[in-house]
Write a structure and sequence with these properties.
- The protein has helices spanning 3-16, 44-57, 74-86, 98-108, 124-132, 145-154, 176-185, 208-211, 240-249, 251-254, 261-276, 279-294, 316-328, 358-367; strands spanning 30-31, 91-95, 115-119, 136-140, 159-164, 188-193, 220-224, 234-238, 308-312, 331-332, 334-336, 347-351.
- It is an alpha/beta fold and 371 residues long.
- The chain has 2 domains: 28-42 and 278-367, Aspartate Aminotransferase, domain 1 (Alpha-Beta Complex), CATH 3.90.1150.10; 59-276, Aspartate Aminotransferase, domain 2 (3-Layer(aba) Sandwich), CATH 3.40.640.10.
- The protein has a 7-stranded mixed beta sheet with strand order 2-8-7-6-5-3-4, sandwiched between helices. Strands 9-12-11 form a 3-stranded antiparallel beta sheet.
């Protein structure tokens, strides 16, 4: 069978399962689906700050190579030092995305004979990174520390626990305080993905671990800048040995072209802007509270204090039809279908933002189907 025929068969199978994906351009609907929680991606004031910074820096348009060749700069290292200060770490290393940062950590640090234990609802990049590792890898039940402990007892070699501070599909938080205690008991290292907490909590948007005073207890922290920070890129924060190890052994860092100066400037300016507008965090909390207050009690929602609010609508067809109905009413809400989430837990993933008006939020809660 030639390649084109095989591709057609696989695509036909996906269409028959009603799982066929297509790209969509911005719709002009009311945004309840993006990860721009604090509105930084659409901030004209931040855009002006970035443009002014770039004029002063007078750097090339592109990085021109990997960080180990021509893609490094004094400016990039200065921004990394600034990030280390924000995230209360000895050192930090910028990556092109949160996906590549997690891939780098999990594929390069755990070795043959070691054990990675990851939350079953962890992001695909954590699972993919673990798959690329030569270590043993097992999932544990979501936020279930008893299940995790049973697996820690059987783990071999160096032990790694990979979790997210805020889970992208459910919007719930990792029980980080208790997890740290358990990790210490079994001499395990925590790999914490702060993707959906970066910006929205902690001093200067420093995330969940810093807000709980646990930075010294967590070996590896990954921060993503394409969500609450409103730009692009990511960084790994930790001690100096960790960063030097990644520079020497992490293939997703070594063999990729570095972020361009524009992205580096965007990261720095976004944190500066947030520091001067930190009340955005409180405004977001008010929007979340408003949504939860007006949500009808019969609606099957997953408990969440974050910007991500999940409404369980079992069945791919039903979830899709409800989302289409909401979009017809100008609410940009997207369905999350199986196998992205387990069958029977298909849902609407509603993201709340500082720029969603109170009337828009209340109207959305009224438009949701009531059993």
């Amino acid at each position: 069978m030639n390649l084109d025929n095989w591709l057609n068969i696989k695509l036909s199978e996906r269409k028959a399962q009603n799982l066929f994906r297509t790209l969509k351009s911005p719709s002009g609907l009311l945004d309840f689906c993006s990860n721009d929680y604090l509105g930084l991606a659409r901030s004209k004031e931040l855009t002006n700050l970035i443009n002014n910074k770039l004029e002063k820096l007078n750097l090339p348009n592109g990085a021109t190579g990997s960080r180990l060749l021509s893609g490094n700069s004094v400016y990039t290292e200065e921004v990394e030092q600034k990030l280390s200060s924000i995230f209360k770490s000895e050192s930090s290393l910028i990556f092109n995305s949160g996906y590549t940062a997690n891939l780098a950590v999990l594929s390069s640090i755990p070795q043959k004979g070691d054990t990675i234990l990851y939350d079953e609802l962890a992001h695909a990049c954590i699972k993919d990174g673990a798959r690329l590792s030569l270590s043993n890898r097992y999932s544990f039940k979501h936020n279930n520390l008893e299940d995790l402990e049973q697996k820690l007892k059987k783990a071999t070699g160096k032990k790694f626990i990979a979790v997210e501070s805020v889970y992208s599909m459910d919007g719930d938080l990792c029980p980080l305080v208790e997890l740290v205690k358990l990790a210490e008991k079994y001499d395990a290292s925590i790999i914490l993905d702060e993707a959906h907490s970066t910006g929205v909590c902690g001093v200067n948007g420093s995330g969940l671990a810093t807000s709980l005073g646990l930075t010294s207890k967590i070996a590896i922290r990954v921060y993503t800048f394409g969500k609450g920070i409103g730009c692009h890129g990511a960084c790994v924060a930790g001690d100096k040995n960790l960063i030097e190890y990644l520079i020497n052994f992490a293939r997703p860092f070594i063999y990729t072209t570095a972020l361009p100066p524009h992205s580096i400037a965007s990261i720095e300016c976004a944190f500066d802007y947030l520091n001067n507008n930190i009340t955005l965090q409180d405004l977001l909390k008010k929007k979340i509270s408003l949504f939860k207050t007006h949500l009808h009690p019969s609606i099957n929602s997953i408990e969440s204090k974050s910007s991500i609010q999940a409404i369980v609508i079992p069945g791919n067809e039903y979830a899709r039809s409800v989302a289409n109905n909401l979009q017809s009413k100008l609410f940009d809400v997207r369905p999350i279908l199986s196998p992205t989430v387990p069958q029977g837990s298909e849902r609407l993933r509603i993201c709340l933002h500082t720029y969603n008006t109170d009337d828009e939020i209340i109207s959305l809660t009224k438009a949701l189907p009531i059993k």
